Amino acid sequence: MTENAAQNAEFHDLIIARGLRAPRSALWRAWSEPDLLKEWWCPKPWTTEVRAFDLQAGGAFHTFMQGPDGGTSDNPGCFLEVVPQARLVFTSMLTAGWRPAAPWLGFTAVITMSDEGAGSRYIARVMHPDQDTRERHEKMGFFDGWDSVITQLDDFASALR
Hints:
By secondary structure, the chain is of the alpha+beta class. It has one domain (3-160): START domain (Alpha-D-Glucose-1,6-Bisphosphate, Chain A, domain 4). The chain has five helices and ten strands. The model has no long low-confidence stretch (mean pLDDT 94).
């Protein structure tokens, strides 16, 4: 990694790394099956509709979230990389077939999972195009929201065993 890339990572990325109880195989299943993904994807009591899910590089990844107060969040995107049971990379900056997008919040997420003891190590790195976007995402509640979703994922995936 170049010095400039390392500096950008420091100022542009938000990262959560946690040890989870669920084994990596269960995490992968919860991530890779749309009917399971919708069960844990957004902080409850919000709900998720999976509108498109083509788990391959260049494939569509589109979720629509709705809150109990009627608020919504429409999130079209694209998978960039899929390494079964190890790594998922997706972005809001592109849609299916690598089509450029103008998202309301531009980011690329790199999700990695590995074995750790009886459970797994889970890392969510969310990269932003600039420091302002990173700060906006953080102020929107990134750490609380993503951390609660990771807990939901762990609870849900633990029950899949």
